[in-house]
Design brief:
about 80% helix; mainly alpha; about 210 residues; about 0% strand
Length: about 210
């Protein structure tokens, strides 16, 4: 852990961007497994339960625009910290849902916070990759694929071992912890971006 904080900031950005890509695709896929358990637990039809994700899925695209603007305005490190914390807390709250209405709200929040990742993290990663930017993006993409692919197996295991709520709670706690670590790094002055940040990139383009 000490080595992580002492490394070049570009390596920290690379690790955090890859972790974020894993989790965003994980959270965009895990409900398709959880819903199968909810059919039995809540005694509701599949079409009604899967429909709860429709608005959240839409928000992933709609909120990408304001998320990108926020990253330009406040900087990627702050925006990505909000991404981790918001996504994690929304996922935890989804695990405590006791009705379709509350689950709809929390799934929508998951979609909103998931929308932050790509417009904020990808430019952040490219800007802080000193060498082989294409390779960095490729590896980052692999982590995103791992997240989507791993969602089924991890969620299925947690549901079988503990229950459907654990399939929300366990990843939610992990994601929130990453967000807390990022905010701590920002608070303590750990460098998480190059000297030329996103706001400078925008202001220099006339």
């Amino acid at each position: 852990m000490r080595n992580f904080f002492s490394k070049d900031h570009g390596q920290r950005v690379f690790v955090l961007a890859c972790v974020g890509h894993f989790f965003v695709h994980f959270c965009l896929a895990f409900y398709f497994v959880i819903v199968l358990s909810l059919e039995t637990v809540w005694s509701l039809p599949y079409h009604q339960l899967i429909g709860l994700w429709t608005l959240g899925s839409l928000m992933v695209g709609v909120f990408a625009v304001p998320a990108g603007a926020a990253a330009d305005r406040f900087g990627a490190p702050v925006t990505i910290s909000v991404f981790f914390t918001g996504l994690g807390l929304s996922t935890i709250l989804a695990g405590y849902s006791d009705s379709t209405y509350s689950l709809l709200i929390y799934l929508t929040a998951i979609g909103i916070f998931s929308a932050i990742y790509h417009p904020a993290a990808i430019p952040w990663l490219v800007r802080n990759s000193k060498y082989r930017k294409g390779k960095s993006l490729a590896i980052n993409g692999i982590f995103g694929s791992f997240g989507g692919a791993g969602a089924a197996g991890v969620s299925g295991f947690l549901i079988e071992a503990i229950g459907w709520r654990a399939a929300f709670l366990v990843p939610g706690i992990c994601i929130t912890l990453v967000g807390i670590v990022m905010f701590w790094m920002l608070f303590t002055g750990v460098t998480l971006d190059s000297a030329k940040d996103s706001s400078n990139d925008v202001s220099n383009k006339d």
